[in-house]
Amino acid sequence: MRFEVWMTVLLMASLVTLSGCASVSAPAAGAMGDAAHRPSAQPVPRALVRYRRTSAAAAATLAAPAFEYAYDVPASPDLQPIFLRVRDADLLRSLPEVQAIDGMFVLPRRLRFVTAECGEFGAFYRPGTGEVVLCYETLRTLYERGQTLQRSLGLGDDYPLRYTRANLRFIVLHETGHALVHLLDLPVTGRQEDAVDQLAAILMLRFAALNETPDEVIGNLRMAANWMLSDSTGAYNLNAYADEHALGEQRYFNLQCLIYGTDPAAFAGMVDTGDLTAARAAGCEREMRQTARAWLRLLLPHLAPGYEAYEEEAARYIGRTPGR
Description:
Elements (H helix, E strand, L loop, with lengths): L2 H9 L34 H5 L5 H5 L6 E5 L8 H10 L6 H6 L9 E6 L6 E4 L4 E5 H18 L5 H25 L8 H15 L7 H15 L9 H5 L5 H15 L6 H4 L5 H4 L2 H16 L11 H9 L5
Parallel strand pairs: 1-2, 2-4
Antiparallel strand pairs: 3-4
Helix pairs in contact: 6-7, 7-8, 7-9, 8-11, 9-11, 11-14
Keywords: Signal
Pfam family, one: DUF4344
InterPro entries: DUF4344
């Protein structure tokens, strides 16, 4: 069994009842509509098709949910419509990747997901309270960015919502990565921001909702990559180079490399369209496998009761020679 299949069974076990969740607050996400990211005629990667599998037996053994969800009332009147929309749609609970890992790990405390007014664009993890916070201002900014792309590229009316949802999924998963590093005391060498970008990408690639097609899954990640270039100017000062986050352009190509590394044959066209350089693409399959193996090693010891049966297969995968 390939690692991709094993991880799907493991991390999609709690998705048995979530086949319709992706459309609660927005239409199912699709591929990007700009010229560099239009859906191609390339074959759907076989590996991604297999991610749709799940296990009812595994779902029945899940521990009690480890996450909580809340929607804080904003003080600003212009944020009220956003609050009402996300609260009524129970947006946080509808994110399939978050639901896939709810109850999966033995955490020292419950992790709480909250939407709130922040006064600026952003999302963050609060170690003191164990909260992943998504700002209402972030949803507004993402939607406006989606509207700009829709108008400039002649995209469909549903594009702003699809763009918003794809990016908020990546953003929430990025902050969830910070939470897991903190709560599980996971060792991270190098920049933690890069590591949790990788985890967010892996979760989105492997554990989308059951009603999402492989093309839609890849489209979500490409829309997330697009946002990373939204403030790109090519001109930076020392503060930008010294920041804990990589430059937007670097995060963009890192994410594209993980996409490509999932199935280089299926995504060979990414090099032709400029989404990835040939030099970087040459090592992306190895990079994707190394990233997945590393996160598996970190998370496996923290599995909740009911997931022990997967440890032997995981150990076989970890023990395999890289590149095979």
